[in-house]
Amino acid sequence: MKNMIVIGxxxxxxxxxxxxxxxxxxxDVVARFSGGNNAGHTVIVGKERFELHLIPSGILYSEKKNxxxxxxxINPIALVSEMEMVENRGVSTDNLFISENxxxxxxxxxxxxxxxxxxxxxxxxxxxxxGIGPAYTxxxxxxxxxxxxxxxxxxxxxxxxxNLDFTNLLITKxxxxxxxxxxxxxxxxxxxxxxxxxxITNTAIIIDECNKAGKxxxxxxxxxxxxxxxxGTYPYVTSSNPTAxxxxxxxxxxxxKIDEVIGVAKAYITRVGEGPFPxxxxxxxxxxxxxxxxxxGVTTGRPRRCGWFDGPIxxxxxxxxxxxxxxxxxxxxxxxxxxxxICTAYKxxxxxxxxxxxxxxxxxxxxxxxxxxxxxxEDISEIRAYADLPENARRYVEFIEELGGxxxxxxxxxxxxxxxxxx
Length: 423
Ligand code: IMP
Hints:
CATH architecture of the largest domain: 3-Layer(aba) Sandwich
CATH class of the largest domain: Alpha Beta
Helix content: 25-40%
Bound molecules: inosinic acid
Largest sheet: 10 strands, mixed
Strand content: 15-25%
Strand order of the largest sheet: 9-7-5-2-10-1-11-15-19-20
Oligomer: single chain
CATH superfamily of the largest domain: Adenylosuccinate Synthetase, subunit A, domain 1
Distance between the termini: 18 Å
Number of helices: 11
Protein backbone atom coordinates (compact mmCIF):
# COMPACT_ATOMS: atom_id res chain seq x y z
CA MET A 1 0.00 0.00 0.00
CA LYS A 2 1.16 3.49 -0.84
CA ASN A 3 0.88 6.82 0.93
CA MET A 4 -2.05 8.45 -0.79
CA ILE A 5 -3.68 11.87 -0.53
CA VAL A 6 -7.24 12.75 -1.46
CA ILE A 7 -7.72 16.44 -2.22
CA GLY A 8 -10.78 18.46 -3.19
CA UNK A 9 -10.03 19.89 -6.63
CA UNK A 10 -12.70 22.61 -6.51
CA UNK A 11 -14.43 24.65 -3.74
CA UNK A 12 -14.96 21.72 -1.38
CA UNK A 13 -18.01 19.45 -1.22
CA UNK A 14 -16.75 17.41 -4.19
CA UNK A 15 -17.76 14.14 -2.51
CA UNK A 16 -14.36 13.38 -0.97
CA UNK A 17 -15.97 11.44 1.87
CA UNK A 18 -17.31 8.67 -0.31
CA UNK A 19 -14.08 8.45 -2.36
CA UNK A 20 -12.04 8.37 0.84
CA UNK A 21 -14.32 5.71 2.22
CA UNK A 22 -13.80 3.62 -0.94
CA UNK A 23 -10.02 4.01 -0.93
CA UNK A 24 -9.43 4.03 2.82
CA UNK A 25 -10.10 0.33 2.98
CA UNK A 26 -6.66 -0.33 1.47
CA UNK A 27 -4.85 1.85 4.05
CA ASP A 28 -3.84 1.02 7.59
CA VAL A 29 -3.97 4.59 8.83
CA VAL A 30 -6.32 7.40 7.78
CA ALA A 31 -5.28 10.94 8.67
CA ARG A 32 -6.81 14.42 8.55
CA PHE A 33 -4.25 17.21 8.11
CA SER A 34 -6.09 20.54 7.80
CA GLY A 35 -9.30 22.38 8.58
CA GLY A 36 -11.67 21.55 11.37
CA ASN A 37 -15.36 20.92 11.84
CA ASN A 38 -16.09 23.35 9.02
CA ALA A 39 -15.75 20.23 6.86
CA GLY A 40 -18.56 17.79 6.35
CA HIS A 41 -18.27 14.33 4.85
CA THR A 42 -21.26 12.16 4.20
CA VAL A 43 -20.47 8.46 4.09
CA ILE A 44 -23.24 5.98 3.36
CA VAL A 45 -22.74 2.39 4.49
CA GLY A 46 -25.69 0.20 3.53
CA LYS A 47 -28.74 1.94 4.95
CA GLU A 48 -26.65 3.94 7.43
CA ARG A 49 -25.66 7.53 6.73
CA PHE A 50 -22.77 9.03 8.70
CA GLU A 51 -22.08 12.75 8.67
CA LEU A 52 -18.51 13.26 9.79
CA HIS A 53 -16.86 16.61 10.36
CA LEU A 54 -13.62 15.99 12.23
CA ILE A 55 -13.20 12.25 12.60
CA PRO A 56 -11.47 10.63 9.59
CA SER A 57 -13.72 8.38 7.49
CA GLY A 58 -11.49 5.41 8.36
CA ILE A 59 -13.28 5.21 11.73
CA LEU A 60 -15.95 3.16 9.97
CA TYR A 61 -13.37 0.39 9.48
CA SER A 62 -12.70 -1.05 12.92
CA GLU A 63 -9.10 -2.15 12.30
CA LYS A 64 -7.73 1.19 11.06
CA LYS A 65 -5.95 3.87 13.03
CA ASN A 66 -7.46 7.32 12.55
CA UNK A 67 -5.36 10.42 13.08
CA UNK A 68 -6.28 14.06 13.49
CA UNK A 69 -3.03 15.76 12.54
CA UNK A 70 -1.37 18.89 13.89
CA UNK A 71 -2.67 21.00 10.98
CA UNK A 72 -6.26 20.54 12.13
CA UNK A 73 -8.03 22.92 14.53
CA ILE A 74 -10.21 21.07 17.03
CA ASN A 75 -13.35 22.10 18.84
CA PRO A 76 -13.41 19.63 21.76
CA ILE A 77 -17.20 19.86 22.16
CA ALA A 78 -17.77 19.15 18.46
CA LEU A 79 -15.26 16.31 18.46
CA VAL A 80 -16.69 14.61 21.53
CA SER A 81 -20.24 14.90 20.24
CA GLU A 82 -19.14 13.34 16.94
CA MET A 83 -17.35 10.55 18.81
CA GLU A 84 -20.48 9.89 20.84
CA MET A 85 -22.60 9.93 17.69
CA VAL A 86 -20.55 7.17 16.05
CA GLU A 87 -20.16 5.24 19.34
CA ASN A 88 -23.94 5.25 19.81
CA ARG A 89 -24.18 3.60 16.41
CA GLY A 90 -21.80 0.81 17.35
CA VAL A 91 -18.55 2.30 15.97
CA SER A 92 -15.56 2.24 18.33
CA THR A 93 -13.37 5.34 18.70
CA ASP A 94 -10.52 3.49 20.43
CA ASN A 95 -8.50 3.88 17.25
CA LEU A 96 -8.73 7.67 17.18
CA PHE A 97 -5.47 9.54 17.82
CA ILE A 98 -5.23 13.32 18.10
CA SER A 99 -2.03 15.29 17.56
CA GLU A 100 -0.79 17.04 20.68
CA ASN A 101 0.22 19.96 18.43
CA UNK A 102 -3.22 20.49 16.91
CA UNK A 103 -4.71 23.82 17.99
CA UNK A 104 -7.88 24.06 20.04
CA UNK A 105 -10.91 26.05 18.97
CA UNK A 106 -12.04 27.97 22.03
CA UNK A 107 -15.48 29.51 22.64
CA UNK A 108 -14.00 32.95 21.93
CA UNK A 109 -13.00 31.81 18.44
CA UNK A 110 -16.64 31.10 17.62
CA UNK A 111 -17.60 34.47 19.06
CA UNK A 112 -14.90 36.29 17.06
CA UNK A 113 -15.89 34.50 13.84
CA UNK A 114 -19.44 35.74 14.26
CA UNK A 115 -18.47 39.27 15.35
CA UNK A 116 -16.05 39.68 12.45
CA UNK A 117 -18.57 38.47 9.86
CA UNK A 118 -21.12 40.92 11.29
CA UNK A 119 -18.57 43.75 11.21
CA UNK A 120 -17.76 43.02 7.57
CA UNK A 121 -21.46 43.21 6.64
CA UNK A 122 -21.84 42.97 2.86
CA UNK A 123 -18.14 42.11 2.52
CA UNK A 124 -18.43 39.04 4.72
CA UNK A 125 -16.69 35.81 3.72
CA UNK A 126 -19.69 33.61 4.45
CA UNK A 127 -17.73 31.43 6.89
CA UNK A 128 -19.18 28.37 8.56
CA UNK A 129 -18.98 30.32 11.88
CA UNK A 130 -17.16 27.43 13.52
CA GLY A 131 -14.29 29.63 14.75
CA ILE A 132 -11.84 28.28 12.17
CA GLY A 133 -10.29 31.58 11.00
CA PRO A 134 -9.80 33.01 14.51
CA ALA A 135 -8.26 29.71 15.75
CA TYR A 136 -5.70 29.72 12.91
CA THR A 137 -5.12 33.45 13.53
CA UNK A 138 -4.14 32.67 17.13
CA UNK A 139 -1.92 29.83 15.89
CA UNK A 140 0.15 32.04 13.60
CA UNK A 141 0.11 34.89 16.12
CA UNK A 142 1.72 32.41 18.57
CA UNK A 143 -0.91 32.74 21.27
CA UNK A 144 -2.92 29.61 20.43
CA UNK A 145 -3.79 26.76 22.79
CA UNK A 146 -2.69 23.30 21.64
CA UNK A 147 -4.18 19.92 22.50
CA UNK A 148 -1.16 19.18 24.75
CA UNK A 149 -2.07 22.27 26.81
CA UNK A 150 -5.35 20.58 27.73
CA UNK A 151 -3.50 17.84 29.57
CA UNK A 152 -2.64 20.02 32.59
CA UNK A 153 -5.30 22.38 33.91
CA UNK A 154 -2.81 24.79 35.46
CA UNK A 155 -0.91 25.14 32.17
CA UNK A 156 -4.19 25.57 30.35
CA UNK A 157 -5.27 28.29 32.78
CA UNK A 158 -1.96 30.17 32.36
CA UNK A 159 -2.09 30.00 28.57
CA UNK A 160 -5.71 31.04 28.47
CA UNK A 161 -4.95 34.03 30.69
CA UNK A 162 -2.11 35.09 28.39
CA ASN A 163 -4.34 34.70 25.36
CA LEU A 164 -7.26 36.54 26.93
CA ASP A 165 -5.04 39.49 27.89
CA PHE A 166 -5.19 40.19 24.18
CA THR A 167 -8.44 38.58 23.04
CA ASN A 168 -10.62 40.28 25.65
CA LEU A 169 -9.28 43.65 24.51
CA LEU A 170 -10.26 42.74 20.98
CA ILE A 171 -13.70 41.53 22.04
CA THR A 172 -14.51 44.53 24.24
CA LYS A 173 -12.67 47.47 22.66
CA UNK A 174 -13.00 46.64 18.97
CA UNK A 175 -16.27 44.72 18.82
CA UNK A 176 -17.94 46.20 21.92
CA UNK A 177 -18.97 42.76 23.20
CA UNK A 178 -18.70 41.26 26.70
CA UNK A 179 -15.36 39.77 27.81
CA UNK A 180 -15.01 36.02 28.24
CA UNK A 181 -13.83 34.33 31.45
CA UNK A 182 -11.07 31.77 31.88
CA UNK A 183 -13.03 29.96 34.59
CA UNK A 184 -16.12 29.59 32.44
CA UNK A 185 -14.08 28.20 29.55
CA UNK A 186 -12.32 25.68 31.77
CA UNK A 187 -15.59 24.63 33.43
CA UNK A 188 -17.36 24.18 30.12
CA UNK A 189 -14.46 22.26 28.48
CA UNK A 190 -13.50 20.03 31.45
CA UNK A 191 -15.77 17.04 30.66
CA UNK A 192 -14.74 17.10 26.99
CA UNK A 193 -11.05 17.30 27.85
CA UNK A 194 -11.52 14.30 30.15
CA UNK A 195 -12.92 12.27 27.26
CA UNK A 196 -10.21 13.36 24.79
CA UNK A 197 -7.14 13.00 27.02
CA UNK A 198 -6.37 9.37 26.27
CA UNK A 199 -6.50 10.06 22.53
CA ILE A 200 -3.89 12.88 22.54
CA THR A 201 -0.48 11.75 21.32
CA ASN A 202 2.36 12.30 18.83
CA THR A 203 0.59 11.33 15.61
CA ALA A 204 3.67 11.88 13.39
CA ILE A 205 5.24 8.86 15.11
CA ILE A 206 2.22 6.71 14.21
CA ILE A 207 2.64 7.70 10.55
CA ASP A 208 6.35 6.91 10.66
CA GLU A 209 5.83 3.55 12.35
CA CYS A 210 3.14 2.67 9.83
CA ASN A 211 5.51 3.42 6.94
CA LYS A 212 8.39 1.57 8.58
CA ALA A 213 6.15 -1.49 8.80
CA GLY A 214 5.67 -1.22 5.02
CA LYS A 215 2.09 0.01 5.36
CA UNK A 216 0.41 3.02 3.82
CA UNK A 217 -1.30 6.12 5.15
CA UNK A 218 -4.33 7.64 3.55
CA UNK A 219 -4.49 11.43 3.94
CA UNK A 220 -8.04 12.68 3.85
CA UNK A 221 -8.41 16.21 2.53
CA UNK A 222 -11.06 18.63 3.72
CA UNK A 223 -12.40 21.71 1.90
CA UNK A 224 -10.83 22.14 -1.56
CA UNK A 225 -8.11 23.74 -3.64
CA UNK A 226 -10.04 26.96 -4.23
CA UNK A 227 -10.54 27.38 -0.48
CA UNK A 228 -6.79 27.19 0.14
CA UNK A 229 -5.38 30.27 1.90
CA UNK A 230 -2.61 30.50 -0.76
CA UNK A 231 -4.05 28.92 -3.92
CA GLY A 232 -7.72 29.66 -3.45
CA THR A 233 -10.02 32.54 -4.26
CA TYR A 234 -8.59 34.79 -1.53
CA PRO A 235 -10.07 36.31 0.59
CA TYR A 236 -13.07 34.00 0.10
CA VAL A 237 -11.14 31.03 1.40
CA THR A 238 -10.64 29.09 4.59
CA SER A 239 -7.64 29.79 6.81
CA SER A 240 -5.55 26.68 6.15
CA ASN A 241 -3.83 24.78 3.32
CA PRO A 242 -6.20 22.02 2.17
CA THR A 243 -3.93 21.49 -0.87
CA ALA A 244 -1.44 18.61 -1.07
CA UNK A 245 1.41 20.64 0.43
CA UNK A 246 -0.65 20.94 3.61
CA UNK A 247 -0.28 17.21 4.17
CA UNK A 248 3.42 17.47 5.01
CA UNK A 249 3.13 20.41 7.40
CA UNK A 250 -0.24 19.28 8.75
CA UNK A 251 0.68 15.72 9.62
CA UNK A 252 4.46 15.44 9.81
CA UNK A 253 5.40 13.39 6.76
CA UNK A 254 8.12 14.31 4.24
CA UNK A 255 7.12 15.14 0.63
CA UNK A 256 9.10 12.33 -1.01
CA LYS A 257 7.05 9.79 0.92
CA ILE A 258 3.86 10.67 -0.95
CA ASP A 259 3.03 8.24 -3.78
CA GLU A 260 -0.35 9.31 -5.12
CA VAL A 261 -2.40 12.51 -5.03
CA ILE A 262 -6.00 11.93 -6.05
CA GLY A 263 -8.06 14.97 -6.89
CA VAL A 264 -11.79 14.73 -6.34
CA ALA A 265 -13.72 16.83 -8.84
CA LYS A 266 -17.48 16.99 -9.16
CA ALA A 267 -18.87 16.59 -12.70
CA TYR A 268 -20.23 20.14 -12.25
CA ILE A 269 -19.04 22.71 -9.72
CA THR A 270 -20.59 23.91 -6.47
CA ARG A 271 -19.64 26.53 -3.96
CA VAL A 272 -20.99 27.74 -0.60
CA GLY A 273 -20.26 31.13 0.88
CA GLU A 274 -19.48 34.37 -0.89
CA GLY A 275 -17.08 35.19 -3.71
CA PRO A 276 -16.94 35.18 -7.51
CA PHE A 277 -17.78 31.97 -9.42
CA PRO A 278 -17.19 32.29 -13.20
CA UNK A 279 -19.36 29.37 -14.38
CA UNK A 280 -22.21 29.87 -11.89
CA UNK A 281 -25.68 28.99 -13.15
CA UNK A 282 -28.11 31.49 -11.67
CA UNK A 283 -31.02 29.88 -13.44
CA UNK A 284 -33.37 26.90 -13.59
CA UNK A 285 -30.56 24.53 -14.47
CA UNK A 286 -28.62 25.66 -11.40
CA UNK A 287 -31.71 24.89 -9.26
CA UNK A 288 -32.13 21.53 -11.03
CA UNK A 289 -28.55 20.53 -10.17
CA UNK A 290 -28.98 21.74 -6.58
CA UNK A 291 -32.16 19.74 -6.01
CA UNK A 292 -31.16 16.60 -7.90
CA UNK A 293 -27.65 16.62 -6.42
CA UNK A 294 -28.88 17.49 -2.87
CA UNK A 295 -26.51 20.42 -2.91
CA UNK A 296 -26.97 21.68 0.62
CA GLY A 297 -24.03 22.04 3.03
CA VAL A 298 -23.46 19.10 5.40
CA THR A 299 -22.12 21.47 8.05
CA THR A 300 -24.36 24.53 7.71
CA GLY A 301 -27.30 23.32 5.58
CA ARG A 302 -26.75 26.32 3.29
CA PRO A 303 -27.80 25.87 -0.38
CA ARG A 304 -24.75 25.45 -2.61
CA ARG A 305 -24.31 27.58 -5.70
CA CYS A 306 -24.02 25.38 -8.81
CA GLY A 307 -22.25 25.86 -12.14
CA TRP A 308 -20.64 24.20 -15.16
CA PHE A 309 -17.40 22.25 -14.93
CA ASP A 310 -14.51 24.68 -15.20
CA GLY A 311 -11.41 23.51 -17.11
CA PRO A 312 -8.97 26.25 -16.02
CA ILE A 313 -9.90 25.55 -12.37
CA UNK A 314 -9.34 21.86 -13.03
CA UNK A 315 -5.87 22.47 -14.47
CA UNK A 316 -5.06 24.79 -11.56
CA UNK A 317 -5.93 22.00 -9.12
CA UNK A 318 -3.83 19.52 -11.05
CA UNK A 319 -0.89 21.94 -11.07
CA UNK A 320 -0.80 23.10 -7.46
CA UNK A 321 -1.50 19.67 -5.97
CA UNK A 322 0.46 17.55 -8.45
CA UNK A 323 -2.63 15.39 -8.97
CA UNK A 324 -1.86 11.93 -10.32
CA UNK A 325 -5.47 10.73 -10.74
CA UNK A 326 -8.95 12.22 -10.79
CA UNK A 327 -12.05 10.88 -9.08
CA UNK A 328 -15.01 12.42 -10.92
CA UNK A 329 -18.10 12.41 -8.71
CA UNK A 330 -21.83 12.82 -9.29
CA UNK A 331 -21.78 12.14 -13.02
CA UNK A 332 -25.25 10.57 -12.56
CA UNK A 333 -26.70 13.98 -11.63
CA UNK A 334 -26.07 15.26 -15.18
CA UNK A 335 -28.34 12.61 -16.75
CA UNK A 336 -31.24 14.32 -18.47
CA UNK A 337 -29.49 17.61 -19.28
CA UNK A 338 -29.78 18.01 -23.08
CA UNK A 339 -26.62 19.97 -23.72
CA UNK A 340 -23.72 20.09 -21.30
CA UNK A 341 -21.14 22.84 -21.19
CA ILE A 342 -17.55 22.79 -20.02
CA CYS A 343 -15.54 25.97 -19.63
CA THR A 344 -12.23 25.67 -21.48
CA ALA A 345 -10.83 29.20 -21.03
CA TYR A 346 -11.96 32.72 -20.11
CA LYS A 347 -12.24 35.96 -21.96
CA UNK A 348 -10.97 38.99 -20.06
CA UNK A 349 -10.79 42.47 -21.62
CA UNK A 350 -10.69 40.93 -25.10
CA UNK A 351 -7.88 38.52 -24.18
CA UNK A 352 -8.17 34.74 -23.92
CA UNK A 353 -6.95 33.35 -20.59
CA UNK A 354 -6.25 29.62 -20.58
CA UNK A 355 -5.21 29.52 -16.94
CA UNK A 356 -7.18 30.30 -13.81
CA UNK A 357 -5.83 33.72 -12.78
CA UNK A 358 -4.17 34.00 -9.41
CA UNK A 359 -4.95 37.73 -9.46
CA UNK A 360 -8.25 37.45 -7.65
CA UNK A 361 -9.18 41.04 -8.45
CA UNK A 362 -10.24 40.03 -11.95
CA UNK A 363 -12.14 36.78 -11.26
CA UNK A 364 -15.51 38.55 -11.11
CA UNK A 365 -14.96 39.92 -14.64
CA UNK A 366 -14.05 36.67 -16.39
CA UNK A 367 -16.32 35.52 -19.17
CA UNK A 368 -16.23 31.73 -19.53
CA UNK A 369 -15.67 30.25 -23.00
CA UNK A 370 -17.64 27.02 -23.28
CA UNK A 371 -17.42 23.83 -25.26
CA UNK A 372 -20.84 22.25 -25.71
CA UNK A 373 -21.21 18.51 -25.39
CA UNK A 374 -24.32 16.43 -26.03
CA UNK A 375 -25.97 15.05 -22.88
CA UNK A 376 -27.52 11.64 -22.20
CA UNK A 377 -30.94 10.69 -20.91
CA GLU A 378 -30.35 7.32 -19.25
CA ASP A 379 -30.12 6.78 -15.51
CA ILE A 380 -26.50 5.70 -15.12
CA SER A 381 -26.46 5.18 -11.35
CA GLU A 382 -26.48 1.37 -11.54
CA ILE A 383 -23.78 1.05 -14.23
CA ARG A 384 -20.54 -0.52 -12.97
CA ALA A 385 -18.43 -0.86 -16.15
CA TYR A 386 -17.03 2.10 -18.05
CA ALA A 387 -17.91 0.56 -21.41
CA ASP A 388 -21.58 0.40 -20.36
CA LEU A 389 -21.88 4.16 -19.89
CA PRO A 390 -23.76 5.98 -22.66
CA GLU A 391 -21.37 7.19 -25.35
CA ASN A 392 -22.03 10.84 -24.48
CA ALA A 393 -21.21 10.23 -20.81
CA ARG A 394 -17.90 8.66 -21.84
CA ARG A 395 -17.25 11.58 -24.14
CA TYR A 396 -17.83 13.97 -21.22
CA VAL A 397 -15.37 12.06 -19.01
CA GLU A 398 -12.76 11.88 -21.75
CA PHE A 399 -13.11 15.59 -22.48
CA ILE A 400 -12.25 16.30 -18.85
CA GLU A 401 -9.24 13.98 -19.13
CA GLU A 402 -8.03 15.81 -22.22
CA LEU A 403 -8.52 19.20 -20.57
CA GLY A 404 -6.32 18.32 -17.61
CA GLY A 405 -4.08 15.60 -19.01
CA UNK A 406 -4.79 13.44 -15.95
CA UNK A 407 -6.72 10.19 -16.00
CA UNK A 408 -10.17 9.93 -14.44
CA UNK A 409 -9.66 6.67 -12.56
CA UNK A 410 -12.85 6.67 -10.49
CA UNK A 411 -16.31 7.78 -11.55
CA UNK A 412 -18.91 8.32 -8.82
CA UNK A 413 -22.47 7.44 -9.82
CA UNK A 414 -24.29 7.71 -6.50
CA UNK A 415 -23.76 7.96 -2.76
CA UNK A 416 -23.61 4.24 -1.92
CA UNK A 417 -20.24 2.56 -1.30
CA UNK A 418 -20.48 0.50 -4.50
CA UNK A 419 -21.97 3.15 -6.81
CA UNK A 420 -18.78 3.84 -8.71
CA UNK A 421 -16.72 2.74 -11.68
CA UNK A 422 -13.00 2.13 -11.12
CA UNK A 423 -10.96 2.20 -14.33
P1 IMP B 1 -14.44 28.95 7.26
O1 IMP B 1 -13.59 27.80 6.89
O2 IMP B 1 -15.58 28.58 8.19
O3 IMP B 1 -13.64 30.11 7.77
O4 IMP B 1 -15.16 29.47 5.93
C1 IMP B 1 -14.43 30.11 4.88
C2 IMP B 1 -15.03 29.75 3.53
O5 IMP B 1 -14.78 28.37 3.27
C3 IMP B 1 -16.53 29.91 3.42
O6 IMP B 1 -16.84 30.30 2.10
C4 IMP B 1 -17.07 28.52 3.69
O7 IMP B 1 -18.34 28.33 3.10
C5 IMP B 1 -16.01 27.70 3.00
N1 IMP B 1 -15.87 26.34 3.55
C6 IMP B 1 -15.25 25.96 4.68
N2 IMP B 1 -15.30 24.62 4.83
C7 IMP B 1 -15.94 24.14 3.76
C8 IMP B 1 -16.26 22.82 3.32
O8 IMP B 1 -15.96 21.81 3.96
N3 IMP B 1 -16.93 22.74 2.13
C9 IMP B 1 -17.24 23.83 1.39
N4 IMP B 1 -16.97 25.07 1.76
C10 IMP B 1 -16.32 25.24 2.93
